[in-house]
Amino acid sequence: MSDDTTRRHERITRHETPGGLNSLQYWTNARNPLRVAIHYLVIWLVRINPSLRLKNWLLRGIGVSVGRGVSWGLESTPDVFWPDLITVEDHAIIGYDATILCHEFLQDEYRTGEVVIGERAMIGANATILPGVEIGANAQVAANSLVTRDVPPDTTVAGVPATEMSSDRVT
């Protein structure tokens, strides 16, 4: 596991908002509402469609970089505002109801960051990946985990926040 969340935060872009209200109140200044509506409709179709080929085609259409042989579980949700900041490399698996976030709306600012899921990585059901996180090749994220830090290649993480599983733990 990386030493701390510094790497993730170094890859995050901060965008100040005018103030007075929380940053989500200004979302229409951040992204074109029509574009977000189209993303939402496409992602809704992706979430309910069992065809992996169609899912990958639809996601590429809204800017997600999808490698060969990527599998998206039903109900998985890529970022609706910034799907173009997601890269999923060849033969990765995104589990049922997993969420990949590329933005965070906060009180006085919003933040965006690319998410990269490496080749043959596996994201478990109901896992959430935060903006700026990189999941290494052959890494595994256990179900129901919150990934706040990079996951090195060939590593298994679990929990909230996700931490590396020790080799002596029963899986």
H/E element sequence: HEHHHEEEEEEEEEEEEEEEE
Please tell me the overall pLDDT: 93
The proportion of residues in beta strands is 15-25%
Number of helices: 4
> Strands of the largest sheet, in order across it?
3-6-11-14-16-17
Question: Runs with pLDDT <50, length 5+?
Answer: none
N-to-C CA distance: 18 Å
Helix content: 10-25%
Instruction: Tell me the Rg in angstroms.
Output: 16 Å
- Structural class designation: alpha/beta
Largest sheet: 6 strands, mixed
User: Total strand count, please?
Assistant: 17
Shape field: globular
List keywords for this structure.
alpha/beta, 4-stranded parallel sheet
Describe this structure as you would to a colleague.
- Helices cover 20% and strands 25% of the residues.
- It is of the alpha/beta class and 171 residues long.
- The chain has helices spanning 6-10, 27-30, 33-48, 52-61; strands at residues 13-16, 65-66, 71-72, 77-78, 86-88, 93-94, 99-100, 103-105, 109-112, 115-117, 122-123, 128-129, 134-135, 140-141, 146-147, 156-158, 163-164.
- The two termini are 18 Å apart.
- A hairpin with a 3-residue loop joins strand 8 (103-105) and strand 9 (109-112).
- The strands form 4 sheets. A 6-stranded mixed β-sheet has the order 3-6-11-14-16-17. Strands 2-5-10-13 form a 4-stranded parallel β-sheet, covered by helices on one side.
